[in-house]
């Protein structure tokens, strides 16, 4: 089993470790991948580290494709990287799993009332029934009269839940009332 990790070296590090523990090998792509460690020799030996920014889309896609296909992909990618997202979709093996972590704004409608990025992705992946597609939408936590963003551990826990018992969309924390989100 080969796992792909994109954007998983920070807040998703615990989820990345969970994925790598279950993989034969894993490919991690980030701007600073060469310095990335899961803190375990047993896990780190499975990693192929590729230091690449997805700002250079073509080079990034080439780097990802070099190690494809993937049984599992855990990604945190900016919403505008639609070409990159579509390329990754095509690199998942039949029966494989794609877990996309998205920010809270990903569920908001577009400026002209068009579908949200989360909804557009769900619709696109519905056309690929041989892939198990799951979203993690990052919300916030209400505390008393205020609120806070999720911790790295809370974010990773949601991603791990989607790897273990996937559902179409998991909201980590809450998204409403939207006016109470941290500023």
Overview of this protein structure:
It is a single chain. The protein is of the alpha/beta class. The chain has one domain (2-180): 3-Layer(aba) Sandwich (Rossmann fold), CATH 3.40.50. It contains 6 helices and 9 strands. It has helices spanning 13-21, 41-44, 57-65, 82-89, 117-126, 152-164, and strands spanning 2-6, 25-30, 47-51, 70-76, 92-102, 132-138, 140-143, 146-149, 169-172. The strands form 2 sheets. It has a 7-stranded parallel β-sheet with strand order 3-2-1-4-5-6-9, sandwiched between helices. A two-stranded antiparallel sheet has the order 7-8. Helix 5 (117-126) links the parallel strand 5 and strand 6. Helix 1 (13-21) runs parallel beside helix 6 (152-164) and helix 3 (57-65) runs parallel beside helix 4. The radius of gyration is 16 Å and the shape is globular. The N and C termini lie far apart (41 Å). The mean pLDDT is 92.
Task: Write out key terms for the chains shown.
single chain, 183 residues, alpha/beta, Rossmann fold, 7-stranded parallel beta sheet, 9 strands, globular
């Amino acid at each position: 089993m080969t796992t792909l990790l994109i954007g998983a070296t920070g807040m998703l590090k615990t989820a990345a470790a969970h994925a790598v523990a279950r993989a034969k090998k894993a490919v991690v792509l980030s701007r600073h991948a060469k310095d990335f460690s899961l803190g375990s020799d047993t896990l780190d030996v499975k990693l192929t580290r590729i230091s690449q920014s997805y700002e250079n889309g073509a080079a990034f896609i080439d780097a990802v494709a070099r190690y494809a296909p993937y049984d599992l992909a855990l990604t945190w990618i900016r919403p505008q990287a639609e070409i990159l997202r579509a390329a990754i979709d095509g690199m998942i093996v039949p029966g494989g799993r794609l877990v996309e972590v998205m920010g809270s704004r990903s569920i908001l409608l577009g400026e002209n009332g068009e579908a949200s990025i989360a909804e557009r992705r769900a619709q696109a992946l519905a056309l690929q029934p041989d892939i198990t597609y799951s979203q993690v939408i990052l919300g916030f936590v209400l505390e008393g009269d205020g609120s806070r963003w999720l911790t790295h551990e809370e974010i990773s826990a949601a991603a791990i839940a989607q790897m273990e018992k996937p559902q179409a969309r998991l909201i980590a924390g809450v998204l409403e009332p939207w006016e109470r989100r941290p500023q």
